[in-house]
Write a structure and sequence with these properties.
OB fold (Dihydrolipoamide Acetyltransferase, E2P), 8-stranded mixed β-sheet, 18 strands, BirA Bifunctional Protein, domain 2, alpha+beta
């Protein structure tokens, strides 16, 4: 048996009263012809006298957010998806029965209004109601108006209430799709085709991450939820689609913090006959296009930093960045023993599976450089050990043609000149299995079907992956990934 608060019992009683007079507490179809945004755009600049003469009739619906009644007339504010609009209602206009419905309504109830647009004596744009229609009875009271949901965890857990009470949260909810639509338009205009690839897979490939596992009952088969989109998309390059991208959910069974959620949206794109430099140009242009077309500005305050997206963006190699920060030139380091000695001198802990030149270079980068890359920076030239799907640099085989985009000290994109040599790719996969034997539980499986696809011939290509959630964080100036995901992963309440 559920326990109801006193307010909830009162509201449930009012729902029964509605039924008794033939009104469905939970309503039915109601056709509107306007909303708060249209009304403000069309009539905000008109005078009180002009509106009284024109009597522009509208039909709107929304949730009651405030109510002020005095005798036989009153005001209320109703909220729709665009904002709020004030309603003036009097018994002389709507009649006694509808006015009684208004008198008994509660904050949070959803109603319909027929009326005409007016301005009050104080100049407030309003709707002069001629008909009041009850639509939905709210059985729970809204949080107190000026404080809303103060518990951040409750905001994310009860996002529906957060969207009602928090205009900033609602704006972000509507902004995220605009960012994605802008990306799609940008990519489509460059001749890319948006595709969909499987979420369930039998192999762990495409990234270094721990997976979620599940089981296919019919085939009695253990499967993974994908950690990346890469290998199926590159198969499409083999098939001749040439320019493809996907925006989709991916899943990594890892920790949660303000920048990471186990379920997140990833975009990957692959462009035949391109390379690392082509992916840099595409990325810089895409971010600047979003900034200009969706937000009309190039500067963003994110993570306590002023970020300027104007180009050209900085491009620097990983070894040069480490040299600038520490004075150590890893290009001149010849052996793993030398690298291990430097790591020990700099108090860098090296795990068993990291005892190689490339892993140590990356550990130096993470300690001394990563968080200092505040303005948009393309960091390229990663060690081969941490880049199993990337083409070797032709001038120094210890490195690959890969870059990561860093903004505000955080990674925003990861791009490659794609590896298309099947024999080299197989050797990389086999090296990953050796790392797994040494304790790297994020190492990739061998995908022999992908090797077979490469043997048919994949054109030279550039490829890139973007974290859409982090991109939305930057553009909406949000410090937590949970602000830009409508339903972030939450531990259930007891």
């Amino acid at each position: 048996m559920r326990d109801f608060s006193e307010q909830e019992l009162v509201r449930r009683g009012k729902a029964e009263d509605l039924r008794k007079i033939g009104v469905d507490p939970f309503g039915s179809r109601f056709d509107t012809n306007s909303n708060s945004k249209i009304i403000k755009e069309l009539f905000e600049n008109k005078t009180k006298e002009e509106l009284e003469e024109e009597k522009n009739e509208v039909i709107v619906a929304g949730r009651i957010m405030s109510k002020r009644r005095s005798g036989k007339a009153g005001f209320m504010d109703i909220q729709d998806k665009f904002g709020t609009i004030q309603i003036y209602i009097s018994i002389s206009d709507v009649g006694e029965k509808e006015y009684e419905l208004y008198k008994s309504c509660d904050l949070g109830d959803i109603i319909g209004i027929n009326g005409w647009v007016c301005k009050t004596n104080t100049g407030a744009l309003s709707i002069h109601a001629t008909k009041y229609i009850h639509l939905v009875k709210a059985l729970r009271p809204l949080p107190e108006k000026f404080h809303g949901l103060q518990d951040v965890e409750e905001r994310y857990r009860r996002r529906y209430v957060d969207l009602i009470m928090n205009e900033n949260a609602k704006n972000k909810a509507f902004t995220r799709p605009k960012i994605i639509r802008c990306i799609q338009k940008f990519m489509d205009n460059l001749g890319f085709t948006e595709v969909e690839t499987p979420i369930l897979t039998t192999l762990l490939t495409g990234a270094s991450a721990r997976p979620f596992t599940t089981h296919h009952n019919t085939q009695d088969l253990d499967m993974y939820l994908r950690i990346a989109l890469e290998l199926p998309l590159k198969r499409l390059l083999v098939g001749g689609m040439e320019r493809v991208y996907e925006i989709g959910r991916t899943f990594r069974n890892e920790g949660m913090d303000p920048k990471h959620n186990p379920e997140f949206t990833l975009m990957e794109a692959y462009m035949a006959y391109s390379d690392l430099q082509g992916m840099m140009d595409l990325t810089e242009n895409m971010f600047q296009t979003i900034a200009k077309e969706v937000f009309k500005k190039m500067n963003y305050n994110w993570g306590g930093n002023e970020i300027n997206l104007e180009g050209p963006w900085k491009r620097i190699s990983m070894t040069d960045a480490i040299k600038d920060a520490t004075g150590i030139d890893f290009k001149k380091i010849e052996t793993t023993e030398e690298a291990l000695k430097l790591a020990k001198e700099h108090d860098i802990v090296v795990e068993e599976h990291q005892k190689s030149y490339g892993h140590i270079v990356n550990l130096f980068f993470e300690k001394y450089v990563e968080e200092s890359l505040i303005q948009p920076t393309f960091l390229y030239g990663h060690p081969i050990e941490i880049s199993p799907l990337t083409k070797k640099n032709p001038e120094d085989g210890r490195f690959v043609d890969r870059f990561e985009l860093f903004i505000g000290g955080k990674e925003f994109a990861n791009a490659y000149t794609e590896l298309n040599d099947p024999d080299d790719q197989l050797e990389r996969f086999e090296a990953q299995l050796k790392e797994r034997d040494l304790g790297n539980d994020e190492a990739n499986d061998i995908d022999m079907d992908f090797i077979e696809a490469l043997e048919y011939g994949m054109p030279p290509a550039g490829g890139i992956g973007y974290g859409i959630d982090r991109m939305c964080m930057l553009f909406t100036e949000s410090d937590s990934i949970r602000e830009v995901i409508l339903f972030p992963t939450m531990k259930p309440k007891d």
